[in-house]
Structures are given as structure tokens and as C-alpha cells.
Specification:
The protein is α/β, with parallel strands linked by helices. Helix content is 38%, strand content 25%. It contains eight helices and nine strands. A hairpin with a 4-residue loop joins strand 8 and strand 9.
Length: 254
């Protein structure tokens, strides 16, 4: 397999908030096309801050974030921890939002919206409202909204943390299937070692105070991954390695 091309690079990135609160210092990371990267670390280590900087929702106070090619509108999709759906809008209207913000009518992009809902298994619920959906279905709508423009990069900030374990496992499986279908790059924030190993090909373990990359754990197991992988000796060994790296990072932060 040829090496993946660089997509974006964080070089010595720092972020200091008011009151001299240092969230990140000297964070460097290369993101390549097709990567599935999990940012794993203790609470307060700057994982969500790093995601916001990459998304352009905030700006670094030190260092730089460079895209290999000129970034275009729609190149990034974002999924937050809460679905953040508009309660007065239907499922289809919620998924249409990125296009609506560009001034594109629903009729002009209805095929793209329908395809995004089909990919997350909600094509039969296009006319439903968020109040009629389960927690897992609401998160699927949020994912459809993030991928409707077929972005190069999808940023996900602990999207499954509030869901029960069975739903979380199912959405983990679905997320890998979606990534394979649309060929995007994913950066995924999680506190779960088990989730990071199942999903990722690279786990970036972060240390806190200030946030920075402490170590990378490579997950070389091939995709697609299924329940057999979750019960395999290879999975258990990788979970132990990632857990040890996380504990070391937390020990340094203490």
C-alpha cells in the first residue's frame, strides 16, 4: 500500500485562554489522508481544544496548523458530544443545514441529503422530528449532517459517550462502515481505551497540564473490524498497550 498523503500538520501548536490558562503547548501532529486518529487522554488535556483549533472554531496562540492543499468550504464536518439538532426541523432539514448555510436550497441538494440519511440508516425517518428519535438515532442524524457535503475530514468530539454500551458498539461498527464508503479522514476524541483501539489506526495519547502529544500507539489490525476483533488476543494486547500509555500520561500530569 502506498504511503498516505499528508492532509494537515499541527506544528508546535499552543492555546492559552484568558487568565493564563494553558490548554495546549507544543502540540505537533501530522494527519494523513484516510487516517482514523483517536485523541485519547485524561479530562482537561486539551483534546476538545485541539479539535476546535483544527475546525477553525478557535485560533492557536502559538504554532501553526497547515493544510497540504488549500482548504475549501465543506472540507470539514464536525460531530459534537451532543447531537445539537434543531427540534423544530425534520431529520432531513437537520441534515440539510450545511448546505442551507451556504445558501443552497433543499430542492437543489435533496439527493445528497437523502444519500447521507441512507448511509446512516435513517432514510425512512426523513420526515420525523428529533423528539421522535432515540438517542442513537439523533446521533446518526448528527453524523449525516457532518458527512452530507462529503468532507475530507470529519472531527468527532466524544459523540457516543452518553449512549448505552450496546448502542455505542453498534455506532462504532457503523462509523467504520461509513468511513470505508466515503473515504474520509477522521479525528475522534474519546476517553475510552477500548473504543480507540477498535476504531483507530493511530491512537494519539495526550498528557495534560499543558496538553500535548505524549505518545502514539499504532493499531495495525486490518479493516473491516467486527466482533471477532473485539474478542481477539490482538485487541486485548493493544488495549493493554494503550492503557499503559494513558496511565503514564496521567501520571506525568499528576
Amino acid at each position: 500500500m502506498p504511503p498516505r498523503r499528508p492532509l494537515l500538520t499541527l506544528s508546535g501548536v499552543g492555546k492559552t485562554f484568558a487568565g493564563d490558562v494553558v490548554a495546549l503547548r507544543g502540540m505537533s501532529l501530522e494527519v494523513r489522508e484516510g487516517d482514523f486518529i483517536s485523541l485519547l487522554g485524561p479530562s482537561g488535556c486539551g483534546k476538545s481544544t485541539a479539535l476546535r483549533l483544527i475546525a477553525g472554531l478557535s485560533h492557536p496562540t502559538a504554532g501553526s496548523i497547515r493544510w497540504a492543499e488549500a482548504r475549501e468550504r465543506g472540507d470539514i464536518g464536525v460531530v459534537f458530544q451532543e447531537p445539537t439538532l434543531m427540534p423544530w426541523a425534520t431529520v432531513a432539514e437537520n441534515a440539510w443545514l450545511p448546505f442551507r448555510l451556504r445558501g443552497q436550497s433543499y430542492s437543489a441538494v435533496k439527493d445528497e441529503v437523502r444519500e447521507a440519511l441512507r448511509l446512516v440508516g435513517l432514510d425512512a425517518f426523513a420526515g420525523a422530528y428529533p423528539r421522535e428519535l432515540s438517542g442513537g438515532m439523533k446521533m446518526r442524524v448528527s453524523i449525516a449532517r457532518a458527512l452530507v457535503t462529503r468532507p475530507k475530514l470529519i472531527l468527532m468530539d466524544e459523540p457516543f459517550a452518553a449512549l448505552d454500551e450496546i448502542t455505542r458498539f453498534r455506532l462504532n461498527n457503523d462509523l467504520l462502515s461509513l468511513k470505508a464508503k466515503i473515504g474520509c479522514t477522521v479525528i475522534f476524541v474519546t476517553h475510552s481505551v477500548f473504543e480507540s483501539v477498535f476504531l483507530s489506526d493511530r491512537i494519539v495519547v495526550m498528557a495534560a497540564r499543558p496538553g500535548r502529544v505524549e505518545r502514539e500507539v499504532a493499531v495495525g489490525e486490518p479493516y473491516p473490524r467486527d466482533e471477532a476483533f473485539r474478542t481477539s488476543p490482538e485487541y486485548a494486547a493493544l488495549c493493554r498497550e494503550a492503557s499503559a500509555a494513558l496511565h503514564a500520561a496521567m501520571g506525568e500530569a499528576a
